[in-house]
């Protein structure tokens, strides 16, 4: 299951991610960690299970893309598993169209990729008479074409993944938004020392963030009361998302990213003030935000 991406003999952290070598999640772990050892698995659930079962020290999963928004499955997996967020890294998403060596753009009739990548390149794709076929991962689309030797097929993936599978780039920079970015989180087991070496952020000092999941009574003003606590404590709320609780019909859990370490003594009063206003509150991690170049 695992294949190293660090130096030979590396003793860096075992980092699980969904996909194949060259996936954007692997870009995230390479940006965030010193000499990680890659543990590619089949999907997001498998990332959480690999960390839970001790097969990986840390897991890397996408949480939000600037074009397609949040990854709802990851929110649900965070509540389902007893893991905590250890860090965050933002990775640029550069997409290309690649095919077998010798292929030409006019000879393509099928394009494979993850559904999110197809959406992030739809301005380039939708004006052409191609069948768009989804795969579980962008790099996996490249592997599929290479292993099958599929003439007439192309993949939307990163240039690094195209090179890994010896594919020819037919068109580069096909993402809709040149500023396209995906935010990844790193998850680990709770109550364990996290002695993993971070790479230095490339655009300045780290910024703390706390992710909290909470539920409130279905009464007027209950959500407002929680938000007022944050405002009174002068805490910036950078994300607020709701998800079905999966326990009671029409009951929702709110997810909040707060730009502070709520587990520190300076901000703990805010967390104490929130608890009486909620029916459930869970701190999913207080961690560093890191940025890739």
Give a quick rundown of the structure:
The protein is α/β, with parallel strands linked by helices.
CATH architecture of the largest domain: 3-Layer(aba) Sandwich
CA radius of gyration is 21 Å
Most strands sheet: 11 strands, mixed
Q: What is the count of distinct domains?
A: 3
Structural class: alpha/beta
The residue ranges in which pLDDT falls below 50 over 5 or more consecutive positions are: none
CATH topology of the largest domain: the name is D-Maltodextrin-Binding Protein, domain 2
Anisotropy-based shape: elongated
Q: Termini, distance in Å?
A: 29 Å
CATH superfamily of the largest domain: Periplasmic binding protein-like II
Helix coverage percent of residues? 10-25%
Secondary-structure element series: EEHEHEEHEEEHHEHEHEEEHEEHE
CATH classification class of the largest domain: Alpha Beta
Mean pLDDT reading: 88
Strand content: 25-35%
Number of strands: 16
Number of helices: 9
Structural summary, described in words:
By secondary structure, the chain is of the alpha/beta class. It folds into 3 domains: 3-92 and 180-188, D-Maltodextrin-Binding Protein, domain 2 (3-Layer(aba) Sandwich); 96-172, 3-Layer(aba) Sandwich (D-Maltodextrin-Binding Protein, domain 2), CATH 3.40.190; 207-291, Alpha-Beta Plaits (2-Layer Sandwich). It is 25% helix and 33% strand. The chain contains 9 helices and 16 strands. The longest helix has 11 residues, at 138-148. The protein is elongated, with a radius of gyration of 21 Å.
Please supply descriptive tags for the structure shown above.
single chain, 293 residues, alpha/beta, D-Maltodextrin-Binding Protein, domain 2, Alpha-Beta Plaits, 3 domains, 11-stranded mixed beta sheet, 5-stranded mixed beta sheet, 9 helices, 25% helix, elongated
């Amino acid at each position: 299951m695992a294949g190293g991406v660090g130096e030979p003999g590396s003793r860096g952290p075992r980092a699980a991610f969904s996909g194949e070598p060259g996936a954007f999640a692997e870009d995230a772990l390479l940006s965030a960690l010193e000499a990680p050892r890659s543990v590619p698995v089949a999907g997001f659930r498998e990332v959480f299970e690999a960390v839970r079962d001790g097969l990986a020290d840390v897991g890397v999963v996408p949480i939000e893309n600037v074009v397609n928004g949040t990854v709802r499955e990851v929110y649900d997996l965070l509540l389902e598993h007893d893991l905590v967020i250890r860090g965050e890294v933002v990775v640029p998403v550069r997409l290309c169209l690649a095919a077998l060596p010798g292929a030409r753009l006019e000879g393509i009739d099928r394009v494979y990729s993850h559904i999110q990548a197809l959406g992030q390149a739809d301005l380039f794709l939708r004006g052409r008479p191609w069948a768009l076929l989804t795969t579980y991962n962008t790099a996996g689309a490249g592997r599929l074409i290479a292993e099958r030797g599929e003439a007439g097929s192309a993949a939307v993936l990163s240039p690094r993944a195209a090179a890994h599978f010896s594919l020819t780039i037919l068109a580069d920079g096909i993402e809709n938004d040149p500023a396209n970015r995906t935010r990844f989180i790193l998850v680990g087991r709770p109550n364990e020392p996290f002695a993993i070496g971070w790479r230095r952020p490339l655009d300045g000092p780290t910024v703390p963030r706390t992710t909290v999941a909470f539920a409130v009574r279905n009464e007027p003003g209950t959500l407002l009361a929680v938000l007022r606590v944050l405002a009174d404590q002068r805490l910036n709320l950078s994300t607020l998302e709701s998800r079905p609780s999966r326990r009671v019909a029409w009951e929702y859990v709110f997810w909040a990213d707060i730009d502070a370490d709520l587990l520190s003594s300076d901000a703990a009063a805010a967390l104490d003030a929130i608890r009486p206003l909620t029916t459930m509150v869970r701190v999913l991690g207080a961690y560093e935000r890191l940025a890739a170049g």
